[in-house]
Specification:
Strand order of the largest sheet: 5-6-7-3-8-9
Number of domains: 2
Number of strands: 13
CATH class of the largest domain: Alpha Beta
Distance between the termini: 27 Å
Strand content: 25-35%
CATH superfamily of the largest domain: P-loop containing nucleotide triphosphate hydrolases
Structural class: alpha/beta
Order of helices and strands: EEEHEEHHHEHEHEEHEHEEHEH
CATH architecture of the largest domain: 3-Layer(aba) Sandwich
Helix content: 25-40%
Shape: globular
Number of helices: 10
Amino acid sequence: MTDSTAVSARDVVHRYGDRLALAHFDLDVPAGRVFGILGPNGSGKTTFVSLLAAMQQPQEGTLEVFGLPPSAALRARVGTVFQENALDPLMTPSEHLALAGRMFGLDRSTARSRAASLLDQFGLGGRERERIGSLSGGMRRRLEMTRALLHKPELLLLDEPTTGVDADERALLWEQLRDQGTTIILATNDLAEADHVCDDVAFLREGHVVAVGSPAALKEGLRRDSVRIGWAGDARATGDELRSWLGVGTVVERDREVIVTVDDASSFVPHLFARWPGAIRAVAVEPASLEDAYFHHVGRRGDAAAREDR
């Protein structure tokens, strides 16, 4: 572990009964960056975040946050926003943040000052005396962010923080989060959001890290073009044939859509229409995306038995 590393995991193993959630898990998270943890349900994302938050301890291996094992004492340097809403709808934002300030050990004046500043930053100024239950879902999510940042944490853990939040709310959240200058670990299934906001990402599969790098670096090793094909009927039967074509990389079927990475879309698309005349309803050609890289390394959700994420 170095001064430039916020989190270091080495050979971490964690089980829930017979189920292996993290399997010899290795990862380094650089300090001061937005780091995405991406993987299907059951891949170990939430388990890893819960270990960092010292909600449980790894059963094997070593895990360090700023050079120390996660502990209750270390929580003073860590902020968390989990998937589930943890707000009391009968309280006001001011009451909620005052309680959080006491839990973080802040004196009343400091907590009040920081709360007022954060509420303004996150667009909640003037709403501090309203019942939380009257706030919109996006506002409640922003309030959870203010609570997590109240004690100026060095590490912020976000587990699906923008689920159900509209695009404008997401943009506001990330604009303010990046201004905090803290290390952020984002566990998410939203590949487009991760591509947009993350400096680095790790792909997880069945408790293992299978690829790590910047979104740009992970996309570099793929075929050059991504072709999205809309079909008139069920497209899944076309996948096996497309995989056999020269110049085709990954093929992902989704009911009436197939996503194919290819060496050269200009030669692939005419061949496509010649093979299935009248069956294709739409074609879109895009540069390779983080989603393409994800499916390349992780595979489709149906490739392994679905398991509940912990």
